[in-house]
Amino acid sequence: MSESIPFIDEYGFCNQWSQKLIDEYVSERATREQKQSDVWTNYIKSAGGIEKIYVKSSKFKKLIRAGIPQGLRPMIWGQILGLEEKISKSNDIYHRSYKMVEVVPKNYRDIIENDLKRTFNDAENLSKDILRKILIAFAVTHPEIGYCQSLNFIAALLLVVLGDEPAYHALCTIVEDFLPADYYTAGMHGFRVDLQLFNSILHERTPEVWKHATKLHHEWMLTASGWLLTVFSNSFPIPTVLRIWDSFLVEGPKIIYRVAVGFLRIHQEEFLKAQKLSQFTNLLSNCEKNMIDQDQLMEMAFGLRAFSRNHLIEQRVVAERIVDTGVGEQQTTLLHEMFGKFNM
């Protein structure tokens, strides 16, 4: 096995990769970035400016699936999420909310402080002070949630891309509009339903890996929690995560399931060779941190058939019925152990 060495990516995150992987990444990035920049520059020019882009058009969706170049991502994400308008109409709620820190229960403030210590500690461009401000402001304006572990990673990702005030409004938008209701609230009902949905999708779409890992006593809930609650932000290399998020912001949560299935299919042959649980979990972790081939991952994800929004809605109804009729208590117990009593 090749020795891993530190490599700082273009977003300031440190990755432990082999020299071969670093060389591949640098070469692929240069080619991809130039191609994306040329295509997006022409598209924006033809639209008459970023502010005139119609984000619901099929052409825009096609471009998004191919990825946004680094230099344009803050502006494109801002346009997708309508951040300029939200900030202008917010009456400075972000800055005002942080000054109301005392209304946030102490237990939430303590969890936030603990999580700040383990949030992307190797990221050069991440300000923990500003991240704290975003999380406190969110807790003030969303008392029904307060704080839930994993929001730190989502907020950090948004902060690195967008800056502080836009990141706060983006976090609010994602929690309120993108993910199912009750995802981060007490009991995490929406998340527990998605755990069941995730399990069903893997069983249906990657049956060999699912059966093999289950036979080894792998707890899929642990894997799903990391992928679902943070939308992969603490799983894959950040450049790959941002490529996933480009599509997530346009197409919604179904992208999470597409990527999960695509990732497992890419590495299926390797996963099936694992003879012990420890081998499988180590292999899964290594494959995650070395997932630098964005094109391969997204092509596999978008190559999946019969993965429509309506199909997922139907499957989620079934998953919710299962959770509400018995599985819920077992999941709640496990989630208590994973996230602690203050998140439930």
TrEMBL record:
<dbReference type="InterPro" id="IPR035969">
    <property type="entry name" value="Rab-GAP_TBC_sf"/>
</dbReference>
<protein>
    <submittedName>
        <fullName>TBC domain containing protein</fullName>
    </submittedName>
</protein>
<dbReference type="InterPro" id="IPR050302">
    <property type="entry name" value="Rab_GAP_TBC_domain"/>
</dbReference>
<dbReference type="Pfam" id="PF00566">
    <property type="entry name" value="RabGAP-TBC"/>
</dbReference>
<dbReference type="InterPro" id="IPR000195">
    <property type="entry name" value="Rab-GAP-TBC_dom"/>
</dbReference>
<feature type="domain" description="Rab-GAP TBC">
    <location>
        <begin position="67"/>
        <end position="252"/>
    </location>
</feature>
<dbReference type="GO" id="GO:0005096">
    <property type="term" value="F:GTPase activator activity"/>
</dbReference>
